[in-house]
Amino acid sequence: MASVHPRKNRAGEITSYQVKWRDGGGRDGAWQSETFEDEVQAGVFKTAVDEAGNRWPPGWVKGRGYIVAEPAQPDEKYRFRNYATTMIENRTGIEERYRRDCIRDLKTYIFPTFGECDVRSTEHFSSDTIDAWLRKLELLWIWRGADKKRLSPKTVRNLHGLLSSVLERAVLAEPPLRSRNPCKLSNLPRADDQIDDEMCFMTPQEVDGLLRCFSVRQDQLLVTVAYGTGLRFGELTALMPQDIIDRDTGKVKLRVQRAWKRDEEGAYFLGPPKTKKARRTIRISAGVVEALDELGLYELGDDELFFTGAGGTRLHYSTFGDRWARAVRLARQAGVFTAGKKPTPHDLRHSHVAALISAGHGLPYVQRRVGHQSIQTTSDVYGHLLPEADDDAMATIEASLAGGRAPLRSVG
What we know:
By secondary structure, the chain is α+β, with helices and mostly antiparallel strands. Helices cover about 40% and strands about 10% of the residues. It contains 15 helices and twelve strands. α8 (about 215-230) packs across α12 (about 345-360) and α13 crosses α14. The longest helix has 20 residues, at about 155-170. It is globular, with a radius of gyration of 26 Å. Residues about 190-195 and about 405-410 have low confidence and may be disordered.
């Protein structure tokens, strides 16, 4: 079995990672090695070596990576590695953190296969070569220390989207470098099977039971506001009194106009929300208004935070997360949750959406309220609803079978 070894300089700093193995896996096999810039890339290659029976993975060229077909030495600016890197580095309207993540994913998952290819080539970039690359991603094991797991369907779809964006740019170039984008022919893995693992929907009764298990009043109010608005944690903890408008109209609204972000050094700062659609204004219920009132809606300064940590600073997710975990444990002991139900703070957002959909509110309204960039996201992600949705559906079907119509119910 191959192994990953950090390589250090004289100062003790890790400068690269070397994958080592004996050819064929036997004791008499000659030592083989390949070197990588970071641990993730090394882990990806280690998995490939193991799956190849402790031999060089098919198509891998030492020091260069996977070669789909020997390029006819494309112009350097059209070599995919250079073309994609330049495109991402010059892209406007994105955060630096996202730019770095794109470059990292290109180096780790896309360049090893397509890095030396010609972005103009229909031989190098075809539905067949892209399908073969997708299949490798689906079978890939990622190592994190002693643990390993497969890439999630969502990650595979994101990587495919990154590759597709580069090829689409080549199609739209002036003059065009390609006639079409072969990524549009791909059949991508479905993420549906992972929804149950990634999301945990809570009923209103479960949220109420969980509230009673918090010992800190601010935490109870945070849960109330989070469930009542569906805000992301970074949006929620950036709320200030200035964001609550139309207070005296009986139709109070909340403006989402900032969220906590991280800069290149990992430091937090207040910046615009996740996407353009995330910058939104939503109605809030009387219960949410009461919670904000108790938090200091009329006492705090307009630019002071509702939710803070020690010394009035940003409330860290991990700090609240520890108290959340304790409350969930107590709720489970009290019978609020079944043994297998393990909600996270973000599941308050999921539960907010599920409550709206199960009550009959349309997807366009839900999309605008929670700030999804696309209604397709709303539709794809929230296919699993609260139990009441099934009850309502069964009542409708039963009434139809009986020759009648189900009674209308209020959704306001």
